[in-house]
Amino acid sequence: MHPIQHAIDKPDHPAAIMAGSGNSMTFGELDELANRFTQLLRSKGLRHGDVIAIYLENRLEYFPIFWGAQRSGITLVPVSTHLTAAETAYILSDSGAKIVITSTRFGSMTEELRKESPDTELLIFDSGDVEDAAAAIASYPADPIADQSIGPVMLYSSGTTGRPKGIKPAPPADPAVMAMPPLAMVMTHMMGVPADGSCIYLAPGPLYHAAPLIWATTVHRFGGTVVVMEKFDPEGALAAIEKHKVDTTQWVPTHFVRMLKLPQEVRTRYDLRHHKRAIHAAAPCPPDVKRAMIEWWGPIILEYYAGSEGNGMTMVSSEDWLAHPGTVGRPIFGELHVCDEEGNDVPTGEIGLIHFASEQKFAYHNDPEKTQEATNKHGWTTLGDIGKVDEEGFLYLTDRKSHMIISGGVNIYPQEIENLLITHDKVQDAAVIGAPDPDMGERVVAVVQPAEMDSAGEALAEELLEFLGGSLARLKLPRQIDFRAELPREANGKLYKRKLRDEYEAAAAS
């Protein structure tokens, strides 16, 4: 079950379709381009264990680059296209990438990158010159290389709380190029994704993010078709599901929020009868938002909690979630522990730092200190999330440890406040942070992206405080509400609170 085999068995079957343009790539074309790319890598002297990076928008060529690296023993580092040249240069240096593949869409960034990373070779799609990636790949033969070996993906953390860190993947249990990864078993046996080649999967998020890329390429292993959105658009996503008869989708809560804010006549305009499973993760989903999605789409929504580190995973069906609102499920691999500051289990129902005991080990690239910080005295590992477990073993996320606000000695979890704010009709997005305060240590600040920027101001701030006051204790209410046209949120749903906190800390110090 691999594109190499599907290129033989069904070369004309679409492997990928772009939702906007309709451009497509068959398994035959995918395999040919992947082979040409591996030949290019070998011609440049890259061998097993070397590293390349990809800084590319959602486009068909993302996939042959992925599969070319996967069969040539090359480590592929996907880089967020929201990062600056300096941030990208840090990842290139830290990972040791010898080549970065990008496109003319990022022209200004590319020119800055030449200065920041002069030793990294650039291949640029659509450049039409000696650096043109498509022309370079096309100039090599489509025959498989003689020394195929499995190449991993090294994902970097989002950098929402500091500099991103590379997550070194554990060695595969089976090193064969065409071996099936563990995720495939989860998708088929736990989530019901068809493995017979009939799956049509919608990827509305950016392919540089872990979930869209790894899930999409696992669908390729099954012989299914991946429909890729160039950029998420709420109505466009519904249209793509109808047009391509999509059966499996994957989302982050921000996608849900934006689809729910569509007018009712738009939401009911599209035929979603083929839509069998909607999978979501990556960020906490406000309970009211998830309940509304289940009411709209039915009990087809599956949620999982996991990280790129792969140390454990929980999952919950719609039915179980409705019986346990707010849960992210029970573990499907890894033994779940909620621990105190000494690394010991806390009693059922009490809040602590979430750990998994698992045979699946991970390490942060070039950062043994961070790796050690993520490991407690028992050898259990954490992603830095805080939560609790109920008597039936269902896990609930409270927030990230790094996001917790300590105001007047009281622990305040921003996620609770954000979950309420986002349900207000006049709020498009919200972030709650702790800003420096001379009396309280930190004060609660809400940074709000209103649905209409014209509504921003004192009147809306008072309305939001009154709205929150009906559900939150006074000590949790924001002491300050500021408005922004847009928040620093990644397309994968992750919010760069670090950028907001840095801004407020700098203002306090000035």
Task: Briefly say what this structure is.
This protein is of the alpha/beta class. The chain has 17 helices and 25 strands. The strands form 5 sheets. It has a 13-stranded mixed sheet with strand order 2-1-10-9-11-12-13-14-15-20-19-17-16, with helices on both faces. A 4-stranded parallel sheet has the order 4-3-5-6, sandwiched between helices.
Features:
510 residues, alpha/beta, 25 strands, 17 helices, globular, 13-stranded mixed sheet, four-stranded parallel sheet, single chain
> Largest beta sheet, briefly?
13 strands, mixed
Strand order of the largest sheet: 2-1-10-9-11-12-13-14-15-20-19-17-16
Let me know the average pLDDT.
Answer: 93
Q: Estimate what percentage of residues fall within beta strands.
A: 15-25%
Uncertain parts: none
Total DSSP E strands: 25
Ordered list of secondary-structure elements with their pairings:
Elements: H1 3-9, E1 14-18, E2 24-26, H2 27-43, E3 51-54, H3 62-70, E4 75-78, H4 85-95, E5 99-103, H5 107-116, E6 121-125, H6 133-138, E7 155-156, E8 166-168, H7 182-190, E9 200-203, H8 210-222, E10 225-228, H9 234-244, E11 248-251, H10 253-260, H11 264-267, E12 277-280, H12 287-297, E13 301-306, E14 313-316, H13 318-323, E15 327-333, E16 335-339, E17 352-357, E18 363-364, H14 368-373, E19 385-389, E20 395-400, E21 405-407, E22 410-412, H15 414-421, E23 427-437, E24 441-450, H16 458-469, E25 480-483, H17 497-509
Parallel strand pairs: 1-10, 3-4, 3-5, 5-6, 9-10, 9-11, 11-12, 12-13, 24-25
Antiparallel strand pairs: 1-2, 7-8, 8-18, 13-14, 14-15, 15-20, 16-17, 17-19, 19-20, 21-22, 23-24
